[in-house]
Design goal:
Elements (H helix, E strand, L loop, with lengths): L3 H9 L1 H13 L8 H13 L5 E2 L8 E7 L3 E7 L31 H19 L3 E8 L7 H7 L8 E8 L8 E2 L1 E10 L15 H15 L8 E8 L10 E10 L2 H22 L2 E10 L2 E2 L2 H13 L7 H11 L3 H11 L25 H5 L4 E7 L10 H7 L2 H23 L1 H14 L21
Parallel strand pairs: 3-4, 3-5, 5-12
Antiparallel strand pairs: 1-2, 2-4, 6-11, 7-9, 7-10, 8-9
Helix pairs in contact: 1-4, 1-13, 2-3, 2-4, 4-13, 6-7, 8-13, 13-14
The chain binds zinc ion (ZN).
The site of zinc ion has 3 residues, from loops.
């Protein structure tokens, strides 16, 4: 049976995978600072005999490890960065480990260990059954901040792939056709002339006026862009005192859309607005690119195979203690809990999702840097039930479950889903071809060039 050896290996490695996830959870690290997480994953793989490429693609905490040879080449993409302000103990009430500290409020501590479980299982099943093909695991830093996958792509990553799989903890077991918006960010810096605001205002040229006029222009732009466009800004510098005409002011913009061509169009129009604001005020504008990620194009062929595999794998069962723990967490978000239960069609007292939801078709206005990879090869970003069903992403409730048995069971389910999906592509080459045909069509009129920031500064490894 396809997957029999995969499941056996994942079960045998379970304790080690859990230890790795717990270690990453106990040491939550900011994007591009994931040194402990990166070492934890590399050491686990090296112990298993893998040659790990550290600092892959020029990104210090990124990793690459592979098994097998030839086609198809299937990528397993994990993340491990944490979030600020979400420090949380593994208890079912809000109690941070460090007040205001970092925490795994998106469950990323589970992603790399889950993929490593899949990789180890695939290695054993491929060896025993003499299956052709290559499995590549990548640890991808900084998903939450600068979008590390774009940085890895500019360093040569992902070009080798035929298929990319990205499992993420979520509320439901659910594959996805959804599109997610891409996101890009710029800092517009205006330079004017300082003067006494009461005595010599005629000598001043206000950089703050330019920022305000730019924001007015951008707000008028909203009416004339497609409905999927999102534009948000904050003024990061508006001068220092009302009696001084500000000679410097800056505004940070993020803009999103479901299509990269729309994003590029909005970028050009915002530039015209910034130039216009500078012209009107006699100031000068410089733009600093902050970087971003592409919209996610989930490949339907890949999503269908994932859906079938989710329904085929043995799933972990939630214990009464785990259900009671999740109930306490859901009680902190009663309205959202009821809404999620209704959406899933589950029994009214459901605390943790059981079963498999129909494939998600709704557009999502969040963003993920898996979008970059989805513009390079057929890709899918899919979720495994892990969160107390009412908890939102980026919350202390998620951080609470990500470091204990609920998160670990989800991680094991994820390893099985990902592993079985990879096995289907290894043994059914026509599925790879079908996915590639769909990918080719989805890329007509689109191309890929990473949205890299002007400045990329990586922290050095702590001594
Ligand atoms: Zn996430």
């Amino acid at each position: 049976m396809l997957g029999d050896i995969l499941y056996k290996t994942i079960d045998e490695k379970r304790e080690e995978l859990m230890r790795a996830a717990r270690k990453i959870w106990e040491n939550p690290e900011q994007g591009n600072h994931e040194f402990i997480a990166s070492d934890t994953c590399a050491e686990l793989l090296e112990k298993e005999g893998f040659a790990v490429e550290r600092g892959y693609g020029g990104v210090p905490t990124a990793l690459r490890a592979s098994y097998g040879s030839g086609n198809p080449v299937i990528g397993l993409l994990g993340e491990f960065d944490a979030l600020p302000g979400l420090s949380q103990k593994d208890v079912c009430y809000k109690e941070p480990v460090v007040e205001g500290g970092w925490g795994h409020g998106c469950g990323h501590c589970l992603m790399c260990p889950s993929d490593i479980g899949a990789l180890l299982g695939l290695r054993d099943e491929m060896k025993a059954k003499n299956l052709p093909g290559t499995i590549v695991f990548y640890a991808c830093p900084a998903e939450e901040t600068v979008g590390g996958k774009g940085a890895m792509a500019s360093g040569g990553a992902f070009k080798e792939l035929d298929i990319a799989l990205c499992w993420h903890p979520g509320k439901y077991n659910r594959s996805s056709y959804s599109r997610l918006t891409g996101s890009n960010g710029h800092l517009y810096k205006f330079y004017g002339k300082a003067a006494h605001a009461a005595c010599d205002p005629h000598l001043g040229r206000s950089a703050l006026d330019a920022v305000e006029l730019m924001d007015i222009g951008a707000n008028y732009l909203r009416e004339h862009v497609p409905p999927d466009v999102r534009i948000h800004y904050c003024i990061t510098n508006g001068g220092s005192a009302p009696n001084v005409v500000p000679d410097f002011a800056a505004v940070k913009y993020t803009f999103r859309a479901m299509d990269i061509n729309t994003m590029n169009d909005v970028e050009e129009r915002l530039q015209n607005i910034a130039d216009g604001a500078a012209l009107m005020t006699g100031t000068r504008v410089d733009v600093e690119k902050l970087g971003g990620c592409y919209p996610v194009l989930n490949n339907h062929v890949v999503a269908d195979v994932i859906d079938e595999c989710m329904r085929a794998i043995p799933m972990e069962e939630w214990s009464p203690e785990e259900i009671a723990y999740a109930k306490k967490l859901n009680e902190t978000v009663p309205e959202e809990w009821k809404r999620c239960v209704a959406l899933s069609g589950s029994a009214p007292d459901t605390q943790l999702h059981v079963g498999v939801m129909p494939i998600d078709r709704d557009d999502d206005f969040g963003s993920s840097d898996i979008g970059d990879v989805s513009h390079m090869c057929p890709s899918c970003f899919y979720k495994g039930a892990c969160f107390p069903i009412g908890a939102s992403y980026h919350s202390w409730q998620v951080a609470a479950v990500a470091g204990m048995s609920i998160g670990f069971k989800s991680m094991i389910n994820g390893a099985r889903m990902t592993g079985l999906t990879a096995l289907r592509f290894l043994t059914e080459p026509e599925l790879v071809e079908k996915a590639k045909e769909e990918f080719k069509k989805s890329m007509v009129g689109r191309s890929y060039e990473p949205l890299m920031p002007d400045k990329v500064e990586y922290p050095s490894r702590p001594q």
